[in-house]
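Usage

Read records sequentially. Each one opens with the input sequence:
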Amino acid sequence: MNPTVERVTRRIIERSRDSRQKYLALMDREAGKHGNRNALSCSNLAHGFAASEADKPSIAAGRSPNLAIVTAYNDMLSAHQPYGRYPEAMKIYAREVGATAQVAGGVPAMCDGVTQGQDGMELSLLSRDTIALSTAIAMSHAMFDGMACLGICDKIVPGLVIGALRFGHLPAVFVPSGPMPSGIANREKQKTRQLYAEGKATRADLLASESASYHSPGTCTFYGTANSNQMMMEMMGLHIPGAAFVPPNTPLRSALTREAVHRLARIGKQPGREGDYRPMARVVCEKAIVNACVGLLATGGSTNHAIHLPAMARAAGILIDWEDLDELSGAVPLIARVYPNGAGDVNHFQAAGGMAYVVRELLGAGLAHGDILTIDPRGMAAYAEEPVLDDGVLQWLPCPEVSGDDAMLRPAAAPFMADGGMRLVTGNLGRATFKTSAVDPARWTIEAPARVFDNQESVQAAFKAGELDRDTVVVVRFQGPRANGMPELHKLTPPLGVLQDKGFKVALVTDGRMSGASGKVPAAIHVTPEALNGGALALLRDGDIVRLCAETGTLTTTADLSARTPAPPPSADSGMGMGRELFAMMRLFADGAEQGGSAMLALAGL
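and closes with the structure output:
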C-alpha cells in the first residue's frame, strides 16, 4: 500500500474505534432481533404480503429471500425515469433464483439542475436527510432479507447509503440506471452560458443549448455529483462490477440489473440456509470509505462529497474529516479528466476504459484497498474488469492495458497531475475546500479586495452593473447549512468565468456549495464555521484584502476582525415559501459542513 493511504487509513480506524464498535454491535443485535421475518406475528405477515399475488405463498413460507426495493423513481428527472420499469423486472429476476421482491418504499429525488438559483434549491442538501429517513421507513417493516437501492443523483445516493446503513445487518446492492447519450459538446454549452451572462445570447439560444445537452432518459453526462456517486459505489463494492456508466434501456444494462438481484438473493442470511453472507455493515468499512475518497480524488469528482463522505461514514460509525481528504489528495494522482475538468463526458470516459481502468490503476499502484468485502465474491479485483454480453451471457473481461484516450484517462505512473486536486485551505476565515483539479495552476493563488454579498442574486446584479470589473474576491455568505440549507451557487459560474476571461484576478469564497460542476474559477467553498454560526465571513467588509492560496493551503484576510460586530443574517422571511419553512428544524440543528451538514446525524448522536 501507498504509505500515505495506509497512514490515513490507520488514523481513521483508530479515530473511529469506539463509534465503529458501537455500530457493529448494534447491527449484530438487529440481526438477532429483526433478522428473521418468521418472528413477525401472523397479522403482521398477512398485512405484509396481502397484495403480493403469485409471490404470496413463498413470502408466507419464509424459506426464501424476500428483497426490498427502495426506489427513487420519478419521471420528471431524466436519471430516475428509467427506474419506472425496474420493479416488475426485478420481481421476475428474483423468482428466477427462488426469491421474491417487493417495493418497500419510495424516496424523494429532487434535481439541483432544475432548482439551481431557485428557492427550491434550499431544500437540496436537506433532502439527503429526508431520503435517509424515508429509507428507514421503507425498511421498518422487518419483512426483508436484503435491500436493492435504486438511486443515482446528488443527494439521493448519499441519503440511501445513510438510511440503508442503519439496516446494515442486511446486504445491500445499489442499482444504477446509466447515463444519457452525449449531447452537444460541453465547451459549446459553457460558451453559450457565458454569452447569455454577457447579454450576447437570447433566452431561446440558451434553452436550445441546454436542451441539446440534457435531452433524453439517463443521468446528465458531465462528471458532477451524480456520476461521482456511481464511481464511489464501485470503489466501495456496492455495485455489480462495471455497472456505473452503462447506458439505460440496453441489453447490458438489463443484464447487470438482473445480476444485481441474483447476487442480492445469494448474500443474505436466511434461517436454515447457509450462504455467502455479506451484510452492508461489513462491506462499508473504514477501508471502503478510504477507497471512495481515493476514487473521488483520482477522478476529479464532485466537491459535494467533501460533505457527503463524512455523513455517509458517520452512519457506519466511521469518522473522517477534511484533513484526511487533503492528505490523501497529496498522494493520489489525478488520472481522469472528465468534464468539467476535461473536454469529454462520462460516455467518453466509459469508452476510454471507465471504472475498470481506474480501479486497475489504483489497485496496481497500492492506492486503493483490494482486501475489502464487496458484494462480488471476487472482491475489488472484479471491479477492474469490464462487463460484456457474449451471446446473451453476462461475463467480465480484463480491461485493456492501455487507455482508449489518454486525454481522458492516464495510468497512475503518468497522471495528469500528481495531486488529487481537492485541497483543504485554512486560516483566520475558517476551513474550506478548494478543487484545484478544475483550475489552472496559475490561478491557485488570488489576493484581492473583497466584495461581500449575502446572496447570489446580489452578485449577479453587481455583475450586470459592471461593479465587479476588477480584481476581486467575491464573498457570498449566509449560505451554510444552518442559514438556508447550503444551496449550490452554480449560477455564479458563468459571470465569474466572464470576469476571469476579461483578465481580472477573481475568486469565490463562500460557506455555500458549488457542486461537482465547479468550474475554472478558483473557489474556497463550504467555509466552516459558517457565517450564521460564528464564522469569520460575517465579519468581512467590502475592501478587506483576502488571500486564497491552494499552494500553501491558506484562506486569510489581513483585516483586523477582532473588534467587529458580525453582520446581521438575512430576514427570517427569506426562509418562507416553497416549503422551506417545513425544514426549519433541519436547518436549526444542522452541524458543520466538515461533519456532513446534517441535523439528523447530529441529533442521533452519530
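Summary fields computed downstream for this record:
- Residues 470 and 504 are 6 Å apart (CA to CA).
- The chain has a mean pLDDT of 93.
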